[in-house]
C-alpha cells in the first residue's frame, strides 16, 4: 500500500510533465488533462492485489509442508524446497524477459528519435526566425502598394547590423511549407492535373535557408516588384516530370492563382504560364519524415494575402534582436505589429512527429530503466535467498576443501541459467511483437546490434548477484556448519 501511494504521488506530479510533452495540436486547446479517477483506482487496486497474491505465495507453500521432511530438517530448508525454487526461477526469468522487451523498445524509440533529429532537412534552420506580418483590414489594398510595403519591411530588417539576410516567405516556412495546388504543365498529356507544393517567396528566401541553386537562375528584385511570370522548381519535381534534364525553359500554370481584391491582389497574368528559370535543391516540405514533394517557387508578388512572414537569419541568437526588428517595422508603419515570432529550430521541435517520437522515446526509456532496476533487485533478492538456504552446504564444501572462487562460481552458475533463459525469451518477444510496437516506434526492434546491446546490458545487471555470492564465499566454515 505504501508503494502504491508513492506511485500515485509520482503519477500525480508527473502528469503535468507528460501533458507538456504531448505534441502540439494533439488534443483540443480547450480540453483539460487531469487524473482519471477510475483509472487511478484501478491501478492502485492492481498494485495492492498483486502484492497480496505474490506475498501470500510463500505462506501457501508453508501451509502444506512435507511432515516427514520437516522432522528431518528445518523450516528454512522446507520453505526453499524444489517447488519454491522453481517458482522463483520462473519469476526471475519472466522479469528479465519483460525487461529485455522494454529495453529493446526503448532502444528502437531512441534510435528513431535520433534519426529524426539528425535528418537531412535540405535547409539550415540555425539562427533563423520567422516574423509573421499581418496586414490590417483595409490597408495596402492595391497590388503595387502591398508589394512595395512588404519589400520595405524586408529591406529595413535586412539592413540591421545583426542580420545576415532576410527574405519573404508568405507560406513557405519549412518543414511543412507550400500549399498543395493543382498545376498544369505545358505539353503534358496527363488526364489529371498533378498536385505540387506552391510557395510564394522573395529570392532572398534561398539565401536565408541556405538552399542551393543547382541549375539556371533565380529572379531578382526588379522582377519581383513587377510580378514577373517566372518560377523555380525543386529537384524532386524536375526528376519526376522532366527526367532527362529539360526542366529549364518549360512552363507551369496555376489556374486558381487569380486576382482576388482586396484580400488577395495578384499580379497581371498570374493565372497564365510561368516560365521555369531555375532548379533548387530539395528541402523537406511535408514534415520531418515524409518524402519531399514536388514544389514550385514563385515571386511572392504573384499573389499577396493579408499576411506574410519575413524569415530572418541573424549573426546572433535571433530572438535577441526581436526588439530591434519591431522597431524597424514601426518605422515603416507605426500601426504595424508582428505576431508570435518563432525560432525555426523551435518550430521544428513543435512538429507533431518530432514531439511524438520524443514522448515515446522518453516514456519507453523511463519504463525500461524501472524494469532494469526491478530486475536487478529481483536477482539480488533471489540469490540472497538461495545463499541463506545453502549456507550449511557451503560450510561443508569449504570444510572439505572448496575454495571461495568455487562457491562464487556455484552461486552465479545457478543465476546465469535464469538470466540467460530470460534474455532468450525477451529477444523472441521483441522479434514477435515488433509489428505491434510499430504503431508507436518508427524504428524496428529487430536490429541485431540493438538486441545485442540490450542483451549485454541485461547480463551486466547480473552484477547484482556478486554481492550475495561474495557473502557466501566469505562465510567462516565453522559458523556455516552451526548456521541452523
**Overall structural domain count:** 2
Write down the secondary-structure element order. HHHHHEHEEEEHEHEHEEEEHEHHHHHHHH
Which stretches are low in confidence, meaning pLDDT under 50 for 5 or more residues running? 74-80
What is Rg? Answer: 34 Å
- Secondary structure class reads alpha+beta
Number-wise, the strands total 12
Write down the overall mean pLDDT: 84
* Secondary structure tally, helices: 18
Share in helix: 40-55%
Biggest β-sheet strands, sense, barrel = 8 strands, mixed
In terms of DSSP E residues, the strand content is: 5-15%
* CA-based shape: elongated
Instruction: State the end-to-end distance.
Output: 34 Å
Description:
- The chain is α+β, with helices and mostly antiparallel strands and 484 residues long.
- It has 2 domains: 82-120 and 345-484, no CATH class; 128-315, no CATH class.
- Helices cover 52% and strands 13% of the residues.
- It is built from 18 helices and 12 strands.
- It has helices at residues 2-21, 37-62, 67-72, 75-79, 82-117, 143-158, 204-209, 221-225, 235-241, 322-332, 344-349, 352-389, 391-399, 404-432, 434-437, 448-461, 466-473, 477-481, and strands at 128-134, 163-168, 179-182, 184-185, 195-201, 213-216, 230-234, 251-253, 273-280, 295-299, 307-314, 342-343.
- The strands form 2 sheets. Strands 3, 4, 5, 6, 7, 8, 9 and 10 form an 8-stranded mixed sheet that branches.
- α5 (82-117) crosses α16 and α6 runs antiparallel to α10 (322-332).
- The radius of gyration is 34 Å and the shape is elongated.
- The two termini are 34 Å apart.
